[in-house]
Amino acid sequence: MSVNSVKSEALEPTRAELAGLSGGARIARLLPVYGLVILTVLLALFFSLLLPQTFPTLLNLRSIVADKAIIAILSLAVMIPMVTGKIDLTVGYGIVLWHILAISLQVWYGVPWPVAALIVLGLGALVGFLNGLLVEVAQIDSFIATLGMGTVLYALAMWHSDGRQIIGTLPDGFFKLNTLRVAGVPVTGFYVLALAVVMWFVLEYLPVGRYLYAIGANPKAAALNGIPVRRYTIAAFVASGTLTAAAGVILAAKLRIGQASVGLEFLLPALVGAFLGSTTIKPGRVNVWGTIVGVIILAIGISGIQQMGGSFWVEPMFNGLTLLVAIGIAGYAQRKRMAATRVPEARSPDKTPAQGGLQ
Length: 359
Fold this sequence. Notes:
Order of helices and strands: HHHHHHHEEHHHHHHH
Low-confidence stretches: 1-10, 350-359
Radius of gyration: 21 Å
Shape: globular
CATH class: Mainly Alpha
Helix content: over 70%
Mean pLDDT: 85
Largest sheet: 2 strands, antiparallel
Structural class: mainly alpha
Strand order of the largest sheet: 1-2
Number of helices: 14
Number of strands: 2
CATH topology: ABC transporter involved in vitamin B12 uptake, BtuC
CATH architecture: Orthogonal Bundle
Distance between the termini: 29 Å
């Protein structure tokens, strides 16, 4: 499997392109860009009309936010290496070890919860750094490297917990990381919103964001233009590892126990959210708000189906099929983009390699 299928070339129309189109043509041009957003709204309206007593309620909103906030954080975590054309599978395995450590450091060793959280975040960053070294220095495919590292982390979680639940008295302040509500909405939703805004600003308006997208589009061209590809790719894995550790701390505050059998189920929906994100807002380009929309449509679809009496196997089936569809759409978007870029290149025979670098 190669995640280089998700490149950093966007298919969204420019203002100049839209200005030259009629009303109907403009809508047709924007539909592939915002189709998933429109589908999300229509899906929410569909379930609201079908389940008026349970779906369009504040209680359901709280439930969705509480259930999917961790998946949203993991989707944003896995999205960062995807910007550079890599993938980080440790998000689904690391969260198992990190939530166990967040509990055991407090219960077994008496570490104050803020210190325990910082230790877990530091270890998450270290694992991300090791992933970056494996991919950039050892030149191991990111899928294989992070799958291997994730398996090691899962084995460490099993060894550390001895396969048993870790239970003990925890401070109320630690629980508030998950239970606190702001304006009636779980605070975890605001974690996701704040994280999304920061990541969006960094990726879209700061040089580091442009560098990461340039690396994902063409690492050789990025290197020729003076971008330290290795440094930024490793940094992307460090950021991903840190966010995964943060999700582990929040999961620990939610579950209040450490258990090695919990956490792996987050990997697939996290990947689905990130891949769906590359099919909307900026099709063919991994982006923050597209990822958030991907997580939202998963949350709405699963919540609605479950309220209609869907069986226990519906959620993994929904996630798996959605992932396949998302990868298919992302691949189509990239091929369309590549076909579109070949035409100008063919029309410009005098274009030198230096001119074909970063835009």
